[in-house]
Amino acid sequence: MKTVKRNEYEFWFIVGSQFLYGPEVLETVAARAAEMAQKMNAGGRLPFRLVYKLTAKTPEEISHIVKEANYKDTCAGIVVWMHTFSPSKMWINGLRELNKPYCHFATQYNREIPNDEIDMDFMNLNQAAHGDREHGFIAGRLRMARKVIAGYWQDEDVQKKLGAWMRAAYGAAFSKTLKVMRFGDNMRNVAVTEGDKVEAQIKLGWQVNTWPVGELAEEIRAVTEGEIDALMAEYGEKYTLATDDLAAVRYQAREEIAIRHMLTREGCGAFTNTFEDLCGMEQLPGLATQRLLEQGYGYGGEGDWKVAAMTAIIKAMTAGMGGGTAFMEDYTYHLEKGNEYSLGAHMLEVCPSVALERPRIEVHPLGIGGKQPPARLVFEGHPGSACVVSLIDMGGRMRMICQDIEAVKPVLPMPNLPVARVMWRAMPDLCTGAQCWILAGGAHHTVLTYDATPEMLRDWARIMEIEFVHINQTTTPERLEEELFLADLAWKLK
Ligand code: MN
C-alpha cells in the first residue's frame, strides 16, 4: 500500500447549519466557509491545507462525511464550526463513528457587530456564539477527545493555534504508520527504556521490531568506497573536519549508508542500538546516527525504542520550523547557587539540528563498548525556549511528561568534553524542576525540541488518548503529587 506523503495530507472544514433559515442563508454560509478556508490557506500560517467540504444540515450528511473522512488516508482530521445554530442531536451518530482527530473551531465570519445594520436577519445568520455552545455540549456529553479553539479566524494567534493542532494531528497520522528498527535489545538491567510494545502499538500504532546486528554488519561491509567518497564530500561541506583520522570518519560514513539502506528497505522511520551489542561493527555509530537524526530519523540509545519513536514523531510534526529537535539525556548538573543548569548530552548521538555553530567532526576513544574510537559531531546547542519530552510505560498506560526549559549558551567552555552538548535551566527552577520530573517518573532520555510547544504535545497526547503531564513555571511539587495521584485513579477506571 502506498503511504501518504506529508504534503498530501489535508484537513476537512465542516460547517454546521440546518434548513430552518432558508436556502439563501445556507448559500451564504457555504460561500463564507469556502472563502475562510481559502484565505487561511493563502495566509501561509497553516502548515496543511484546510479544505471546505460541507455545510451540514442533516444527520445523514454528517454520518456520510464522517465515514468518508475516516476512510480517506489523506484526511488528517476534521475542523468543525457552527456558523448558524445546528441542533447537535443531528451530530450524535456521525460523531460516534469518527476516528480522525477532531477540532472544534469556535469563530465568527465578521469580527465586529455592525452597529447600524444589525437586525434579526443578521442575528440569525451569525449565531456561532450559541451554535458553537450547542455543538460543544454534545462533544462534551460524548466525552470526545477534541481540541477547542475560540477566537477570530483572521487573527495570527488563532491561526497559529489551529496550525499547531494540525501538526499534532499529522503527528498522530505519522505515529500510526511508524516502524521502529531495533538493533539489539535494551541495555541490560535498565528499567525506563523497557515497555509494552503491544500496548504501544495498540495506542500509538508503532510497529517495533528487531533486526539482527549481524545483518547490519554485512550491510556495512557491502558499502562501496564510491558511496563513501560521495558522503565524505558532503561532510566536508557541512562540517569542519577536526581530525586526521579520516579512516574513522569514513567508517562512520559506511555505517550511515548501511543503516539508511536497512531503514529504507524496511520502511522504518526510527531505530535503536546499544553499545552492548555491536557484533561485527568496528565503531559505535556516532556521526552516522547524528546524520540520520538530522535527516529526520528517530533514534534512541541503549535500545530505547520509545524515545526513538518520539524523536521521529516530533521531528515529523515540526518539519520546517527550524529550531531543531534532538535525542537528549540529562547528564550532569551545574549547581552554583542562583546559576543552576542541567548539562545535556549523550555518549555521541545528539542531533546537529540544535547546533549553535558549524559542528566539528572529531575522533575520540569511547570508554565503554570496547570498540574503536568513533567519529562524532561536536557542537554546543543554541539558546532559546524549548521543552524536553519523555514517554514512559506506567504499566497499563503510557504517560507523556513535558517540561519547559530555557536553553542557554553553555556557561563554561568545557574544552575537554568530546561530545555535543546543550545546557539549560529547567522550569520552574532546576532543583524544583528535577524534583517534579523525578516525581512524575520521567526518563533520563528525552526528546529536546525548540519547535514543538507544550500545547502541540498536549494536543498529540489527547489525540492518542494517553496521559499528559506538563511541568512549567507554575508547577509546584505538592500540586503535581496530587495531580499524579488523581490521574492514577482516573486512568485505572478508563
Ligand atoms: Mn543513554
From TrEMBL:
Named cofactor requirement(s): Mn(2+)
GO cellular component: cytosol
Signal recorded as keyword: no
UniProt-listed GO biological process terms: L-arabinose catabolic process to D-xylulose 5-phosphate
Keyword line: Arabinose catabolism, Carbohydrate metabolism, Isomerase, Manganese, Metal-binding
Gene Ontology terms for molecular function: L-arabinose isomerase activity; manganese ion binding
Domain L-arabinose isomerase N-terminal: 9-173
Enzyme class: isomerase
Keyword match Manganese: yes
Cofactor note: Binds 1 Mn(2+) ion per subunit.
Known EC number: 5.3.1.4
Binding positions for Mn(2+) per the UniProt entry: E302, E329, H346, H445
Reaction(s) catalysed by this chain's protein: beta-L-arabinopyranose = L-ribulose
Domain L-arabinose isomerase C-terminal: 324-467
Domain L-arabinose isomerase central: 179-320
Family note: Belongs to the arabinose isomerase family.
Protein name, per record: L-arabinose isomerase
Source taxonomy: Bacteria, Bacillati, Bacillota, Clostridia, Eubacteriales
